[in-house]
């Protein structure tokens, strides 16, 4: 029998639509239900029927031979299969023991940007109500936090793209800073086609990436900046826009505030100085401003987008603010046919940060320090607002404190693989090893799960119901498309079970995804990310709903959702967008004789995030090839390493092994490493955990390294 189910990809924030067809077989495997599962692209505004290699092969996750089926508990130094009763008993006893000895904050929770909205919501509630801990944060802190913080302070609200992706499709001018969408989310590139064909696609990236190639093929521009100089690049562009009269003075007067201070900061970034610091020529800087301004004036579509290359810095929030300042000066945000937005990376990177698994937030994107927000959420949860803990440690600070005298002694990880994905990963592994109790919920034995005391096997993407929120704030249904295997349980079920064992009343933690969503709606009502008017039936009927979508005073009136934000006013108190004056401080560490190169990290086409899933899919693993370090041929010669041969890359924090890949599209002072590989090949053994003071984002995108030949294993 053939069963076809419409759903969305398990991987990135574009959330391409797909149909999963399951053909049941006469005979079934003992634990994982048998039958073939095929994936086809489905027509949808973000992917228009297209999928990338990761999406096409995603069904292999459902039949992966490494799939975890039974809970595992460490005994005699080894993880051994056991029953759920025993595994959850070990977790509950361990948590109780740590809490009794060290207090509630000694138990920490680390979530993920791939969890459904329901799980992200439940996890934050579980941490604060069942555990009573303030120490809950998630891996989105390493992904979108700088963009979110900068959007919050400029516009009063962060929703990723404040306009639908399809608005980009007709634009003639798009400046993309720090994103390689041709590899990270290929169907997105189709939306940049018109700009590329018009010579209006401008890409700021230290590397000559596939996205850069597309821009250049249409006559666009590659701003090949030094890593860590996005901020002065944006200041220099603003300088030119102002001095060349390429700014919208009426818009600035009517819709913004703070321009004068932002201009004073940018005034110091005259073109020649900007060229000297960023490595981008004055000619290219002027052409960039001219292209954006011409498109803006002629109303042919002008957009500025940022991604992790500009954001993952110890000054990432200020870098994004500098970019937003430029967008505001050109008059782009809050208008049809123009705008600024960040491109979310993780599958539910957007919803994952709205529902309460962040250290400083409650559901609905509410501030945890706001008494009214605490009272509202406590009412929905049926608890005393005074019992809710305050803000906790941010992601890296939480990991850094594990097992220390004042830090958490037990950690529960859901949907994250921090042993690979956290900065200074060698140190993070040491901290994980110092815990009294490490519990990991996952469907594969990730590198973090392999270190755990207890591993809880959970259902994955196409085996359960839920919702996610895409990079454009559109709420989507993920649907069960195949039968769940025998053994793994839903994380909602696991958290509810654990909550009961920890003394919570029956029914406080629901297990049905739709019931959890109903509670999430109530918790978000009236907050910045208001989902109260969104329901499973609305989504199932195919409605296109972007938040905010309040229920409204009359339950019979349907709010249509908000595809485009800020058209009338920004979400600040006075409705004006705020310029923010920012200064350039440079990367947190400098190159010197011992570490003469700058390493930057990123993704490749065939892998996703820590690679825990995609490394297990043969087709993807073969396509991606081995771990590599990309370097200019002249730099390779200077450092004594050879194309195709093994090399060691060293920073002040660690050493990574990689195959040398020479590429003339690299800057002479820069090397690139993908961060999907494990063991000695982890790029994050090198990266710098220096944190942005506002977003607490680590500096993934610039650290000083050296390169030397290594002996093959
Ligand atoms: Fe999945 Fe992203 Fe590829 Fe689309 S672009 S198929 S969402 S990984």
Structure description:
This protein is an alpha/beta fold. The protein has 4 domains: 2-63, ADC-like domains (N-terminal domain of TfIIb, Single Sheet), CATH 2.20.25.90; 72-142 and 349-511, 3-Layer(aba) Sandwich (Rossmann fold); 145-342, Dimethylsulfoxide Reductase, domain 2 (3-Layer(aba) Sandwich); 597-709, Barwin-like endoglucanases (Beta Barrel), CATH 2.40.40.20. Helix content is 31%, strand content 18%. The protein has a 7-stranded mixed β-sheet with strand order 5-4-18-17-16-6-7, with helices on one face. Strand 24 (646-651) and strand 25 form a beta hairpin. The radius of gyration is 24 Å and the shape is globular. 60% of the residues are buried. The mean pLDDT is 96. The site of iron/sulfur cluster has 14 residues, from helix 1 and helix 6. Iron/sulfur cluster binds next to helix 1 and helix 6.
In short:
By secondary structure, the chain is α/β, with parallel strands linked by helices. Residues 2-66 form the 4Fe-4S Mo/W bis-MGD-type domain.
